[in-house]
Design goal:
With about 170 residues, the protein is mostly helical. It contains 7 helices and no strands.
Length: about 170
C-alpha cells in the first residue's frame, strides 16, 4: 500500500478495488483497474457529498423501514460467502433507493462499519475542500479588483449553499 501511496493513490481507493472482487477469485491487479476503482470511489464520494448537502438543505427523519430493507440487501450479500462485490453493489443500490437523503446516509454509515471506506468522511472532506476553493477564488477575485472578499460570493456555489448561513449565529456543523 505504501508503494501505491507514493504513486499518488488513495489507500481507500485500493480497498474499494479489492472489495470489488470475491475473496475466492484471483484479484487481477493492473494500474488501469486501480485507476478505474479510484475514479469510481471519487464519484461515489461525490454522490455522498451531494446527499449530505441535500440532507442539510432539507433535513428529514431516517425511514426505518427503508433502512432495514437496504441493510438486509447488504447483509444478504455478505452472508452469501462474504460476497463483498455484491456488498459494493448494495452501496450503489442505496443511491437508487426511493427514500430520503437521511436514510441513504444512515445506510452508508452502517455499511461503512464493515467496508471501512470512509465514504461520509471523504465526502465531508470534499465539501470542505470545495468551500476552501470557493473562498480562495473569491479572495483572489476580490484582490484582483482591490476589494475585500464578501461572504455572499460563496452563496452562488450550489454544493456549498446548504452549508452557508447568513444568520448572525449559524448552527454548528455536525
Amino acid at each position: 500500500v505504501s508503494l501505491l501511496e507514493e504513486k499518488g493513490y488513495d489507500p481507500l481507493a485500493y480497498r474499494f478495488f479489492c472489495l470489488q472482487s470475491h475473496y475466492r477469485k484471483s484479484l487481477v491487479f493492473t494500474y488501469e483497474n486501480l485507476d478505474n476503482a479510484a475514479t469510481a470511489y471519487k464519484k461515489l464520494t461525490a454522490k455522498v457529498a451531494a446527499l449530505i448537502a441535500e440532507n442539510e438543505k432539507k433535513p428529514a427523519e431516517v425511514d426505518a423501514e427503508a433502512l432495514a430493507a437496504l441493510k438486509k440487501r447488504f447483509t444478504d450479500a455478505l452472508d452469501n460467502d462474504l460476497n463483498t462485490s455484491l456488498a459494493v453493489t448494495a452501496l450503489y443500490d442505496v443511491l437508487k433507493a426511493q427514500t430520503n437523503a437521511a436514510t441513504k446516509l444512515a445506510a452508508f454509515d452502517d455499511f461503512d462499519r464493515v467496508l471501512s471506506l470512509s465514504l461520509t468522511d471523504a465526502a465531508r472532506a470534499q465539501i470542505e475542500e470545495e468551500k476552501k476553493k470557493a473562498a480562495d477564488a473569491a479572495a483572489a477575485a476580490a484582490a484582483a479588483h482591490g476589494a475585500d472578499p464578501e461572504p455572499a460570493s460563496l452563496e452562488n456555489n450550489p454544493l456549498l449553499t446548504p452549508f452557508i448561513s447568513t444568520a448572525p449565529n449559524p448552527p454548528a456543523a455536525t
